[in-house]
Amino acid sequence: MSEAAIEIKDLRVDYGDFVAVQDISLSIPYGEVFGLVGPNGAGKTSTFKVLTTLMEPTYGEVSVAGMDIFEMAGEVRRVMAYMPDLAPVPSDLKLWEFLNFHADTHRLGGRRARRERVDECLKIVNLFDKRGSWCKELSRGQTQRLVLAKTLLHRPKVLILDEPASGLDPLSRREMRFALQALAKEGATVLVSSHILSELAEMCSSLCVMNQGRLLASGTAEEVRKVLGQAERCLSTTTFGDAQAVVLWLETRTGVSEVKSEGGKVSFQFTGEDGEQAKLLVDMVNAGLEIRSFEEEGSSFEDILVRVAEGNREG
User: Fold this and answer.
1) Are residues 177 and 157 in the same domain?
2) In this prediction, what percent of the chain has a pLDDT beyond 90?
3) Three-state secondary structure along 97-159?
């Protein structure tokens, strides 16, 4: 078995004179939830079409589970699963009937084996108690999780999910996240595209940022932030004591700028990594400052994607 679940080298996709994907290379190991993020037109959908053997690229090399997707497309499809955004489900079938039909298309043994696998997948997505309900009775979040259950039936080694949390309420997004992370712990690789950036930061062990067909950065959220030159974070702290004393102390610290105070809350910009941020808090406490809370405001990773999208419009 290849060490990498997905290997992409110099992938390019052209539509006439338009370059949708421009010479990207990625290596994604097994047991990883990997995020593919970027604004509309970044090249995410074209990359997914190639990976799922639905389209041939202009050029490039792509392998899944050690198999060339162009020379061994049939074998690749047997170890891969694809979940498109808002995949439809029939309204006139019950949940177990819908899954049983797809289990049969995968030839998952006899009736008993199919039933056991159907129930197992329903439990993974927390829908087992609704196995006898009609598909038309499900909420959007439940429908997304049912499609995920269908995607898991044949125990794929690689899952490619296009916007799986799109339109879901917070509880459904959390359940989706838990399910995907559990699959990764069992050795599967999950490649997920999403615009819900805060969810990706929590869900994914690694990610990459695409823009206008190019790969801008890949790695952990912290590594991506560093590569894109956005190490600055907006932090805030509240205090029981004198806020002005906190302001004066912060203004002497390396990496701190734009210190502002409002009531008992002090906000400021900080340039540094996670460890340096943790040390800053320790130093504040050791300095005798009466800190009640200390947090990062908003998502600096989301800010990166906003700036990428704004750069598209300016271009």
Assistant:
1) yes
2) 57
3) HHHHHHHHHCCCCCHHHHHHHHHHHHHHCCCHHHCCCEHHHCCHHHHHHHHHHHHHCCCCCEE
